[in-house]
């Protein structure tokens, strides 16, 4: 029984890795602060230039059936973040759409 609990916990942690909880943008709108959760459940913050974001329309992944919106960077193709846009509160929808697409 303990093995199953450990396996379930590991799978849940892997799914939640790089899950973005908050996105902050500065007044000049040229830098984002992504606050996300790592594998161990700790909050991590990273600064990203808005020009470094790779929008979904450039990646060719416009599927509406996804549970989360993938956030990719031009400078590091291996680094991916996950954004649950269905349950979030967007303060500026026009700015959000300009950065991340629909």
Automatic annotation (TrEMBL):
UniProt topology in membrane: Multi-pass membrane protein
Keyword Transmembrane helix: yes
Keyword set, alphabetical order: Membrane, Mitochondrion, Mitochondrion inner membrane, Transmembrane, Transmembrane helix
Location, primary (coarse class): mitochondrion
InterPro entries according to UniProt: Tmem186
GO CC field: mitochondrial inner membrane
Protein's cellular compartments: Mitochondrion inner membrane
Family as reported in the entry's similarity comment: Belongs to the TMEM186 family.
The name this protein goes by in its record: Transmembrane protein 186
Organism: Drosophila persimilis (Fruit fly)
Gene: Dper\GL11556
């Amino acid at each position: 029984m303990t093995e199953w609990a450990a396996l379930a916990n590991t799978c849940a942690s892997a799914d939640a890795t790089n899950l973005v909880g908050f996105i902050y943008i500065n007044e000049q709108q040229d830098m984002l602060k992504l606050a996300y959760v790592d594998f161990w459940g700790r909050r991590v913050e990273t600064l990203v230039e808005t020009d470094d974001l790779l929008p979904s329309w450039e990646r060719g992944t416009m599927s509406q059936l996804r549970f989360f919106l993938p956030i990719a960077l031009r400078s590091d193709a291996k680094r991916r973040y996950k954004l649950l846009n269905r349950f979030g509160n967007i303060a500026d929808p026009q700015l959000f759409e300009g950065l991340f697409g629909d």
